[in-house]
Design goal:
Layout: E1 2-7, H1 10-22, E2 27-32, E3 42-43, H2 51-61, E4 65-68, H3 71-75, H4 78-84, E5 89-90, H5 94-101, H6 103-113, E6 120-123, H7 126-136, E7 140-144, E8 153-156, H8 159-170, E9 182-186, E10 191-199, E11 204-206, E12 211-212, E13 215-217, E14 221-224, E15 229-232, H9 239-259, E16 266-274, E17 282-287, H10 294-298, H11 307-315, E18 330-337, E19 361-365, E20 368-370, E21 376-378, E22 382-390, H12 393-406, H13 420-429
Parallel strand pairs: 1-2, 1-4, 2-3, 4-5
Antiparallel strand pairs: 6-9, 7-8, 7-9, 10-11, 10-16, 12-15, 13-14, 15-18, 16-17, 18-22, 19-22, 20-21
Helix pairs in contact: 5-6, 6-9, 7-8
Amino acid sequence: MKVLLVGGGAREHALAWKLTHDDPSLELLVAPGNPGIAQHGRCVAINTTDIAGLVALARDEQPDLTIVGPEAPLAAGLGDALREHRLPVFGPTAAAARIESSKVFAKQLMLDAGVPTARAERHVRPEDARRAARAMGAPVVIKASGLAAGKGVVIARTLGEADDVIDAMLLEHSFGDAGNEILVEEFMDGEEVSLFVLTDGTRAVPMLPAQDHKRLLAGDTGPNTGGMGAYAPLTLATSAVVDEVMDRIARPTLRAMREAGSLFSGVLYAGLMVARDGSTPRVIEFNCRFGDPETQAVLPLMAEPLLPRLLAVALGEGLDETPLRWTGRHAVTTVVASAGYPEAPRTGDPIIIPLSSDPDVHLFHAGTTRSSDGRLLTAGGRVFAVTAVADTLAQAQRKSVHAAGAIEFAGSQYRADIAWRELERHAGAA
């Protein structure tokens, strides 16, 4: 088997690790990859948004499967272009990727399909958006409709803050074209849960639920980021909750996509708000790909090969809906970020990684590069995702934090409290 993996972050490193761990004979090609991924396959320096370059690579290499990691190439039509050349691809068409690339499209789809979600209004004029915020009341959520690298959602605690965010998006173009239209949305209370659903557009099977930590600082404070860590599993997302999400959210959404002429094939990422009162979970947002950093916590817990399910989806053979098997252990992923992240991340700092022989600690490269003299340097806001697997959540957290703290580069920052809510629940239950 030959697989082409598109992407160069920690999510793709986790996918590369899982695929080659399951099948060491697999020939893995990655574009563009990173120094960590290079340990698992051959990296080719083609940017993820270079659609023509990626298609040319796939036509030359003729992989049995192409897996697209990030959302930007999917929204730009990479899946469509590969299918035109009869190259199997795991990832939706550009039309189906609108479920992430246009929050306005996704919200209307949910409302039309009766999928539980927050009330929201679309606006392009600041004065109209400000009126909508006052009608909703604070706190209120302001969302850039387009792709904003996971940072285009702001929870405004006051109406004054909402006004500032609206002006920043619509007048100052703080998110570029992604913020040319925005959603002013009802604030939902509860805890966020991420659920990946593998699907061929008709059949669907859920993966293990996880929880992301978006805020930079301990206790979920500080600025919003692309994700400072994740853990899995979580007691809040029981099997009954997952079944309800599949019945009330995932399957109706997939049906609505088919009826709209945009069959969704790949992984549907449902960002959910789960209330503590046991009410039906509601959708915060959908993504059209594996989540980052949740993938880094989920895949090390998978007790069966991933590739057969992805290949069945890509080949249109019909997805096996037999429940996926999991180890029953716990995983905590701690993100190690660069100085200045998220506002102005610094790059180019030399990195020292201590040697580790623990098979239950996985160091996934997110933003690293090699200098001309071979030194490992920081090359992005999020530099590493450090996943530890253990028999208890507390053990997994301790191991992850210890490994994250052992990585050395100037200005490194990480949270030592990933999974804090879950650990509090465990303590309460005890």
